Structures are given as C-alpha cells and as structure tokens.
Amino acid sequence: xxxxxxxxxxxxxxxxxxxxxAIGCVIxxxxxxxxxxxxxxxxxLDRRATGKTRHTSQRHEADEVEILSGVFEGRTxxxxxxxxxxxTDARSKDYAGIAAQFxxxxxxxxxxxxxxxxxxxxxxxxxxxxxxMRVAAGVVAKKWLAERHGVQVRACVSQVAHLVPxxxxxTAVEANPFFWPDASMVAELEAFMDALxxxxxxxxxxxxxxxxxxPPGWGEPVxxxxxxxIAAAMMSINxxxxxxxxxxxxxxxxxxxxxxxxxSPAGFASNHAGGVLGGISSGQDxxxxxxxxxxxxxxxxxxxxxTSGQPVEVITTGRHDPCVxxxxxxxxxAMLALVLMDQALRHRAQCGDVDPVFPRIPGxxxxxx
Amino acid sequence: xxxxxxxxxxxxxxxxxxxxxAIGCVIxxxxxxxxxxxxxxxxxLDRRATGKTRHTSQRHEADEVEILSGVFEGRTxxxxxxxxxxxTDARSKDYAGIAAQFxxxxxxxxxxxxxxxxxxxxxxxxxxxxxxMRVAAGVVAKKWLAERHGVQVRACVSQVAHLVPxxxxxTAVEANPFFWPDASMVAELEAFMDALxxxxxxxxxxxxxxxxxxPPGWGEPVxxxxxxxIAAAMMSINxxxxxxxxxxxxxxxxxxxxxxxxxSPAGFASNHAGGVLGGISSGQDxxxxxxxxxxxxxxxxxxxxxTSGQPVEVITTGRHDPCVxxxxxxxxxAMLALVLMDQALRHRAQCGDVDPVFPRIPGxxxxxx
Amino acid sequence: xxxxxxxxxxxxxxxxxxxxxAIGCVIxxxxxxxxxxxxxxxxxLDRRATGKTRHTSQRHEADEVEILSGVFEGRTxxxxxxxxxxxTDARSKDYAGIAAQFxxxxxxxxxxxxxxxxxxxxxxxxxxxxxxMRVAAGVVAKKWLAERHGVQVRACVSQVAHLVPxxxxxTAVEANPFFWPDASMVAELEAFMDALxxxxxxxxxxxxxxxxxxPPGWGEPVxxxxxxxIAAAMMSINxxxxxxxxxxxxxxxxxxxxxxxxxSPAGFASNHAGGVLGGISSGQDxxxxxxxxxxxxxxxxxxxxxTSGQPVEVITTGRHDPCVxxxxxxxxxAMLALVLMDQALRHRAQCGDVDPVFPRIPGxxxxxx
Amino acid sequence: xxxxxxxxxxxxxxxxxxxxxAIGCVIxxxxxxxxxxxxxxxxxLDRRATGKTRHTSQRHEADEVEILSGVFEGRTxxxxxxxxxxxTDARSKDYAGIAAQFxxxxxxxxxxxxxxxxxxxxxxxxxxxxxxMRVAAGVVAKKWLAERHGVQVRACVSQVAHLVPxxxxxTAVEANPFFWPDASMVAELEAFMDALxxxxxxxxxxxxxxxxxxPPGWGEPVxxxxxxxIAAAMMSINxxxxxxxxxxxxxxxxxxxxxxxxxSPAGFASNHAGGVLGGISSGQDxxxxxxxxxxxxxxxxxxxxxTSGQPVEVITTGRHDPCVxxxxxxxxxAMLALVLMDQALRHRAQCGDVDPVFPRIPGxxxxxx
Lengths: 369, 369, 369, 369
What we know:
The structure is a homotetramer of 369-residue chains. The first copy, chain A, is α+β, with helices and mostly antiparallel strands. Chain A has one domain (5-368): 4-Layer Sandwich (Chorismate synthase, AroC fold), CATH 3.60.150. The first copy, chain A, has seven helices and 17 strands. Chain A has helices at residues 42-48, 108-115, 131-149, 186-199, 226-235, 256-259, 329-351; strands at residues 5-6, 11-16, 22-28, 66-67, 71-72, 75-76, 81-86, 152-160, 205-212, 240-245, 263-264, 267-268, 276-277, 280-281, 286-292, 302-305, 311-314. In chain A, strands 1-2-3-7-4 form a five-stranded antiparallel beta sheet, covered by helices on one side. In chain A, helix 3 crosses helix 7. Chains in contact: A-B, A-C, A-D, B-C, B-D, C-D. The interface between A and B is large, with 124 and 123 residues. Strand 10 (240-245) of chain A pairs antiparallel with strand 10 (240-245) of chain B, so a sheet runs across the interface.
C-alpha cells in the first residue's frame, strides 16, 4: 500500500517529485457545475511560491497549472479533474554531493530504509514541492465551499521563533510577506529573518487557520471526526510537529467550568472548543493552530552517516527556506478546505434529508469581542 | 457516510451506545495464528475502567468480553474477530431531566443538528463508553506487535491541571491510580483530586504515549504518514484538543541546528523528531503527547438552551470523571498500537521484499541519558 | 488485509462462523430516522432459512435478530446498527470426520493454504450461514429504498438444472417453495427435487433479480459503475459462477441495431441494457441474472486428499441443500438493495444539487408487453 | 463521491476525456525496485490501439506514454507513478451534430441525468479511450506478476457474433488481428467483418481471459473474493454485459458430481471452478469469460430524443469499431492483472508469514488433456 490520496468523497491524489519532469494531481468527486479556469489557481500558488522575497527559497517555479480533464466549457463535469504543473527550475546538481548521505532531520534515511531505492534529487517525493498540488486542489475546495455554503477559510502566521503578534488584525495578514497579523512588527520580522538567513540557521513557526461560516453538523463520529481529520491533514504537511483545536494544550490547565462554552439563545459565550463538539461542527468558527519545526536544511555543518554507514559531515547547499512556516498558511488553508468539503459531501450523503427543527445557536467570533 | 471504522488493513469497526444493551467491535484483517483468549482483555479493560477508585466515575461495568468469531482453538484464523461487551450498569434515569437540554461542551447539540434524532441516554454514541472497544481492539494489536516485532507501547499521565512530574520513572506509572511517573507526588495528586471532586469542577490533563522497538520504515507518505495517522487516532478520542509528535510545539522556538537529530554510526544524538521523519518511522522511539480537556459534565450549573431554543440552566447529575485524562493512558496506547499494527501490515504489503543493505542507526532513548 | 465489509457509504461488516456462538453485522452509514424493529427482519430471514421444506438443508435455526445499537425509540439514529443472531442448531460433530480432508469443490483447501489455520466446523467462515447477515442488512436497505425512493427489489428462480419456466408470473413466485414464476410447474419441480435428493447428487440454478423504480443517475463511473458493483455483489455470494446484466451473454450474438434500446418521448422501446448505460442507471428496470453452481456437498463419494497429502475418499454427511440456488433469491435481492442504497447515497453526495432540466424518459417494463 | 480509482493496495486512478488534451493515470502502491521504462508500454498499447487494421476504428493515436514520476534510474521507487498520454487525433467536429441528442445505447442520457453538465465530444469520459490507461497500468501489473510470481496473463476472442473457434491454439492468437485462436478461420472472420462494416451494423463478442501460475491463497473472503473483484473489473469495461468464472452459466445444468473438481496427490482432475474456491485462488488456472455487446455507434439511423425531449433520428458519424470486443483482450488482461497484483499485495499484508505445511496440489491445465 501507498497513500498518496486524501479524502473520502472528495479524493485528491498527488504525484511527482521535486526534480522530476512534473507534479500533478487528480481531484475526484467534485460536484458538477462549479466554474473553474486555469487562472483560478494563480493567487494561492503565488502565495505559496518560493522566490517572491529574499526570505524564502530562491527556487523560481512558474507553477503554471494545466487543466487536463474534468472541465468543459468552464465548468466542472463531475469527472476527475487532472491538474499538471511542469517543474521548470530544478537544479539537481545541488544534490549530487549528498545523494549518498543522510541529511539529519530529513526523510533521506527513512525513505531508503523503507523502499531500498529512492530519488534523492531535491528530496524527491518527500519535498515540500508536493504541497503545490495541495494548494491547487485547495483552490477548488475553497471555491466550492464559498459558493455553495458561504464558508471562508483563512490563515496567518501567529508565531516565528520567540516572536508573537502584539496586536491582531486579519486585514494586515495579506499585506506583508510573513502572513503576519500585526503590521507594526513587519520591520522587526524582516530584521529577524535577515539575521537568521545570515546565520545559516533556521527557525520554527506557528500557523493559525480558521474557517468561518461552517454550518453545524459536519463531521463523522467516531473515527471520521472533523477535528481528527483536521489533525491528520495538518500533520501530513511537511515539518508539522503539533496540532491544536480551539484551546488546544491550554485546556490542560483550564477548569471545566472555564473551558465549556456556555450557550444562550443569543449564542455561544466562548469558543474554547474551536468549533467542534463530539467531532461535529457546532456552527462556531473552526480554530486550528499548527506547529512547524525549523527546517533541517542548513548551511551549518552537521554530523551524520552515509549510505555505507560511515560518519560524515553534511552541509546542505540547495536552495531552502530559513523558516518554512512562512509559506505554510496557504497550505494549511488548502488542507482545511479539503477536509471541510469532503465532510460536507459526506454529511449530505447520510443526512441530506434531515430537517433540523430546533434553533441554530450563533457562534462566538473574535470580532464580537 | 458514517465513520465507525478505524484503520486500512487492520480495520476496527465499533458499535454501541453508552446505555444500549451492548457495545462491540469487529476486528478485520488480523493475521492468522495469534494466540487470543477472553482473559487477554482483562488487564487493559481494568486499567481503563471506571469505579476502581474514588477518583473516577462510579459506574461499575463488568466489561466481560465475549469472543464471537475469528478464533478457533485459541488462535486467530484470519477471519473477522467479533467482540461483545454487555452494558450492565447503565442508569438512564440520571439523564431523564436533560434529554431536552444541550449540555454545554457536550455533543448533544451537534448530534441533534446533524442527525435530527439521537439517543440521549448517557451521551449515547458520543460517550467515552465507546473507548472500551478501542482498548479491547488495542489488546490484539499490542499482542501482535510484541510477538511479531518486539514493539512495546506504554503511556503515562504527564500533567494534571498545573501539576507536572518532578521526577520521571516508568516503573512507577502502573503502581498508582493516576498513571503518574513520580511516586513521590501521589499523595499530592490524591489531595488535588479530592478537592477537585468536592468543588464540583473538573481538570484537564496531558498524556504521554510511547512506542519502543518500532523498526525503521513504517508509515505511508504522503497522506498516510505515520505521524498524521497518530494525530488522527489521538484526536478521535473523546476530549482530546491537541497532539504533539516529538518536540511538538516546542519546536516553534527551536533553531534548526538544535532540532535536527544528528546521526553517527553509534546512533541518533537526540530524538526531537519523536521517531518519525518524512512520515516514516526512523527506528527511534515514537513519542506522542496528547491534551485532554476538562470534562464538561459538572455539578456546577451552567447556562444553555433546550431543544425548543429556550434558555435553561443545566446541572449534570450522571456519574462522571472529574479528570477524564486519568483513564486515558490505556486508550492512547490502544490507538497508537492500532496505528502501528496497521502501518506494519501496509509496509509489508508494499515493501515486504525490500532488502535493506545499509546499516540501521540505533535510536536515542531517554534511558540512555 | 481482509475484506468483510461491503459498500462505500452504506457499509456492512459481517462476522461469524457457521458453528461459532453467533453471527452478526454492523451497518454503518444508514441515514437517521428510518423506522426499524426486530420484527422487520422476520419475513426475509424466513424466506432464506433452511428447514422450511424437505427441499432444503434440515438445519433449523431460530434466526432471532437482536438490535444492539443504532436504533432509539424505533428509529435509526445515524450511528452504527449492530445486529446479532445466535447460532442455535450447529451440529459440529457431523464434521469431525472431515476436518483433515479437503472436500472437493469447497473452500477447505484454499482457506488452509491462505491462512494456515482454520475453523473446519460447518465450513466455518466460508459457509453460506454468513448470508443470513446479508439478508438482514438487505432488509434495512430495502426499507430505505422503498420509503425514500419508491424502489422495489425482487427475485425469482428462473432455471433449475434443465428446467425453465414455461410461463412467467411474478405473483406466483412467493406462493411456492421454489420462488418459481410458473405455478403450473411446481409439481414437476417437487418431483425433480425429490429424485435429486434421493440420488445424493445436487443441481445448479439461475436466479433473476430485478429493481423497479430506480431513478436515472445512480452509479459512479468508471470503477464504481452500477453494473460493476452489482457483478461483484452477486459474485461474492457463495456458489455463484456467472452474472449477466440485461441481455448478458445473449448480446454476443445480437446486432447493434437490435441491442441498442431506441428512445422516444413515450419511453425506451426495449431494455437490453438491463437498466444501466455507461455504468449509470437509466431509469429502466435493473435486470440481473445469476448462475449458481450445484453444491459440492454430496453423499456420493469423491476422490480428494487429506491435509497430509494422502489420497482419500470423502462423503459429506452434514445437512446440505441439494440445490443452493433455491434459497438464493432473498440473498440476491439483499445484495442488489445494498448496492443501490449505497449508490443512492454516493449520488446524493456528489450530485445532490444537480437540477435535471430535460425530460425523463419512461422505462420499458416487461408488463408493458 | 466519484469513483475513478481501482484497487485497494495497488491503486490506479485514471482521468481524461476522449477529446480532451490528455488522458492519464496515477499508479499508487507499486512496490519499489521494479524495472520500468516508457518502451514497456508499447506492445500492449499497440495491441489495444485503433487504426491498425480496417476492422477497427480509424482514429490514429500515437499513444506515447510519458512517465511523470515514481521511477528513478529505471526502477520504481515506491512513490506514485504518474503516466500521461496526449490525445493527438481527436476530431470533435464529428460530434457537433449530436451534442444535443441522446445516442441510443450510449451513456449520453445517463451522464446528463446524473451530472446535469457533460463533455459530449467523443463520449467524453464514458469513451473507451479511458481503457488506454487501464492497459498502461496493466503493463506494470503484468511485469510485477511475471517477475515476482511467475504469473502469466493472456486473453483471446472466443466468439464473434455466431462464429466460434473450431480449433484452439494459444500460439495463433497474436498472429491475427482478431486475437483468434483458430488460424484456419481468419479468412472467414475477415469476410464477416468486411460485410459487417459495409452493413453499417455492429457485432458482439466473447473474450476469454486466463491467468497461469497463480499460487493458492490469493483472494479476500467474503466481500473481496478474487472472483467477485474479477467480475467487477470486467464489468467496469465499456460494453461488457456478462462475466463467467470457470464453468459459469454452464454450471446451472451440471450435476454436483460433475462440477466439483476432484483432487488427488497428482492434481486436480478438472477445473470447473475456474481456479477459485471460496473466493480464494486454488492454484489452478484462473479462467474468465466476458460478453461484449455490439457497439451502439452505428451508421444505421435510430430513433431517440434530444435534450429538449423531442423525438429525433440519430446517425453516429464518428469513427467507431464495428466489433469492440476485437480490441478487448489486452483490456481484459490488464484488468485481471490489476486484480491479481492487488490481491497478491493484500495477501502478503495479512498472511505474509503463514507457513503452509501441507502439500500443494497441481492444477489441471487444458494442455494436460
């Protein structure tokens, strides 16, 4: 078995290596009738792309999406949507020196242990290049969620190393290269990133992801819980080491009387649950926080072994991000959108004719404060 | 769609409500030849059970497991293993008063929004009673992992509210009712729990889960990553709000040079990755940390609405745990064991004849320190 | 992997051996709100049961269905429906003599080759006893199809050995023990079966299954085609060796101008397609024909080998059906109903908001002739 | 949900329309280390291709396979294998006249009823063009089965309309354009096909498919039976209306004493079961027979309706095969190979360490006669 597909009813299968001829995906299960054109992918692929500022890897990929199937006269037909992106700026020679070495903190060692044979160029299949197709698939899910259900998915970077936003304004997020919600700190971040890059080291980050407008009822107890699938979706992204829903680890030190979100006809009084109760959406905003480790691709030398078991010192000379979390918000949004669309379809399958007779309780939004 | 099955090749399907006649599960895909008897389930079900001390719910269930199929002359046959546990101590009248009310922090509201019709007795399907069958299924997985691969899975409580262990000794864990790794703090915990119970409030907890002896190579990139499936498995447990692998959220403030686990022929120098690189086990210990929220079932009154949308005050009078995390270690172990056994079978399917020619690098264990 | 589950969105998992303590199933994904009671299972289980006439096996099972979960106050809740049937008339001693022999035409040899360890009592898991739970699950699917979509599923025996109906009347089918559509031939069939039973030999049969009222649009191209899933469903029944949709093998000698079903606003002119075009229901009746081999459990001695590889002669002394096809109609109906309900839910998931604007073309029914 | 993937552990996902820019597939789960090059696809794609003789459609496609991923230095890596074939000879204008008409016997009506929006060019997704990718994926499965298990898969046409082979010789099959096993009848077939083509009508056919060398033990009872999955695989091919395993429908008129395949240490005495007992391979040859309907694309006018519900007469003017069954053998082989490889991997997952201690019984081959 291998597992390059994501989702149950909206099923995305990706393929492709970092330095192979192309990457691509097949999106199976998208309802018919959704307007879709190649230019729809532009914005989010640019948000994820490297080489846009000096703070990311300097690989410059065109990321042109070709729609191979599933769309006729500008609308989806219900058949599988094939998407293809040619790799245009791979520099495999950067990796020639390390093909026989296991880079610490990378998947080199585990891929070779598992498969016995691997493509070492640029990390091959384990490269974050694969997330390009997640973002592309996420574009389709976001469009459908917005048009069919009025759901909006968004994300920001909520921590870089020790830096946390002092203020919080969603409108600031897309106006700086760090997806940072506090405009007053952008210069500080730039200085931090410049110093980091010069040091040859890397930094971790935290990303906050949110879905607004999710109706109550999405999520499949007990092993297809909405939060369980969100956790898997986020943890499947390269470099992720932790996932929280709502209060997350802070709930360990909360009292039950503090954590439980009281309700009244006017709405929920708080949202410590992060929009999920018993694995099912409550109608409140879905709130997710994700930890990204610092990349292990460093110019600083590190001890490792080679494929013959001898000790060596490795220096990673490819083009890399000093803080991979800085490009992660569109990826996290895409994964959340894919989970939500999949769950929406699953809910429609089983409960499509349930007629809710009791009132819906409004959610508590941050902006209500 | 509904989703009461877990796993791909080792597939566990559970059924049953908290106050229905019985709960049960079907384990499909277990290899033939594994020794299995009803008494194998005793130890772990007792570790999970309520009513053993004053610090847990006072529901007393016999938890007698009947093996209905899949075992002949004491060994599994490869056919589905049906397990049944009759509910013997349900007190549904405790819930009569709240059938028409949505308990805050519970799944009452979301189940009714989703399905339009629900079993309110004791939380019905959303009750933690369901985890009994996870533990039962986990017993099978633990046995197979130990006998076939020498893998050991274990867990402890690593935080209750603000209390953290001052020392750490795995041998202490099973010798106190709190799965606590510091024997010197047991009296302190008892006092804390007594006060908590009297207050009518509840507390959160953190559970640490570990697998020793996992060989390198288990895990299916990219959407069936070992850590992604662990995250889903843990988040699917009632009351869980966060999951970390290895350094987890601490990796946000680590430098890359600090986080990456250097390697030498003598072994890995650290285990910040938590035993997973690129979604595949590295041969180091698998390290997972899980956040449990404080239960929302409190004797303290709370504001909510009823099914006709009117504001009401609710008091939960059923038998509940003041700290659900205290019974969670066997559940977390079971879920980790189920993920690992499933991944082991998947790995064998695709890579069963891969012949690793390079050396295996020893893991860094805590006990090495 | 093992594969004891059927269906994608309506997922039925069965367990249990012929002579184990019980057989059972879990039905996952049934929409909430469907009325369901233990007595709903009576009629179809009796239609499938042995021991009702001298023409079937003389095993007398009570076949009492216990609903363990998923139903509250007489209606399904959307959570998994657990069903249990205790085995009450197993006579394992009948098999003591043949535990170490491979009965020709049976699964004895293949189960042992696959699993290395098996339950030989009454065929264990490979026994047709398992089809009891298919029929039980089919009852739920039939109810939902009838109530939600007005779909009716029915079956008859359309051939026994060389005997074929000379006339055809659906109302005759349930009025004789052979599900035979020609009342005038019942005496002839009884004589044939009596002679067959006395001879110690067995006979094959053909079953015709039909679904009326299926709307156009059900079926998932290209690998989840309605006819492909029907073929798998039928072929998964014990003793089935062939499946036809519509004209079936007769289409080999048809001309295209004869086979294609012409259309007019008044309706389809014929139904050689059997209600499926391109894997999707056309709105015509679904027509399926299934071949059942003669059972291999005979009183006539036959050459085989034992588990040590020595030649032996085997005589099957258990209670067996001289023509297993005679009890197959309710099983075939159940499988067709399960496929249709599953496809209905899948169709609703992807195309639940498609608004057909062109006219629906009426189907051609046999009774129109 | 949509369903454009095939297999459980070897998972093939196809995409693409007949007249879109390209067709392609992703093969996920192939073990690492298998030698694979673009030229491996040539032979089977040519065997399936149109335009090679006057007896098939005159569409001339290059069918050049580009390997996009999953292969490094000539061997599979265990990551998904992406294959792409550009469409080079689509003539969509042929279909301009019938875009608003439902061709009888085609999927036009059902696709539009299901999806509300469709690509009508050349049949779009419902075209047999999709089978190109099945054949490509089948090449991988055939290679693996041959190299790893010595299994050979082959097929021939065993009937065209009323014509059946008078002799049978496998070596003749690949030496004529009809995959016909009787060289003495080739002239007769050519004359038949010429007359058929001139008449504007079409003919049905029967294809026989066979796997030699399959070891005992492959197949997953009870819903993943080897024969059940073969039935689904064959019925998922365009134009198939019936599937038989072994004796198939002939078993209806067989006696049990005739049908059951007796065994001795020297081997099975016959193979009426077609190599499958209880859903598991017996070690005998797998024998499958498949009915192909006559294509409904005719130059002869036929009555139908248009998308506004009005009666019209339709003539299909595109390039079509007068007997689609004549190109089906490589497709049937591919589907059988994909089922077998998938089952081989599943068997290895669950029973990889079963050690058969009893003797294997040789199969009965036709050539033994």
